[in-house]
Design goal:
Elements lengths: L4 H22 L8 E6 L14 H23 L2 E7 L5 H4 L10 H12 L8 H12 L10 E4 L18
Parallel strand pairs: 1-2, 2-3
Helix pairs in contact: 1-2
Length: 169
């Protein structure tokens, strides 16, 4: 509700249009069979309280653009286009979201929630996301395009929380 038009458009520009622009510029010089990848987040399709500022809409745009770009860039240049929906992962960028003095960061709440509710109750590491990106970029994934690949310990599959207390402040 408090997102400005400028902030909303900035989120769309940074998280969605930037990928369209990347494929526009690099597609013509990529080898057929090449791969373009982006990162998205489950907030594109589910409400994640605290993940605002137009970012959820921008991620939904990115996922839609991925499917359209897969068709267009596949037909035009023979390249594949996919996105990875990474689960909560403690990174420098994620640690900056929504911290109040003496409180957990947004990402700390999200990690706790995931561990309490995902089918695989384990830590998610950047290497897990990287390995998925490596696979999608490799010849082993030569027929995979237009996909949102969830690398989130299965959290995206859940329809009901097992432990909603994990998000309690």
């Amino acid at each position: 509700l408090e997102t400005s038009r400028k902030g909303y458009l900035a989120a769309s520009s940074a998280s969605a249009y930037s990928f369209v622009s990347l494929v526009q510029k690099f597609g013509p010089i990529m080898n057929p069979g090449g791969s373009a990848l982006s990162l998205t987040y489950i907030a594109s399709e589910k409400v994640i309280p605290g993940y605002g500022g137009g970012m959820s809409s921008a991620k939904a745009q990115l996922e839609s653009d991925t499917r359209t770009l897969a068709y267009e860039a596949g037909r035009k240049w023979g390249i594949r286009v996919n996105t990875i929906s990474a689960g909560p992962l403690k990174s420098r960028a994620a640690s900056a979201i929504g911290k109040e003095p003496g409180q957990k960061t947004f990402i700390e709440y999200a990690i706790d929630y995931s561990k309490a509710n995902a089918p695989l109750a384990q830590d998610l590491y950047s290497d897990d996301v990287g390995a998925s990106g490596l696979f999608l970029s490799s010849p082993m994934a030569r027929t995979i395009t237009g996909v949102t690949l969830y690398v989130d310990n299965g959290l995206h599959a859940m329809g009901m929380a097992l432990d909603s207390a994990a998000m309690a402040r």
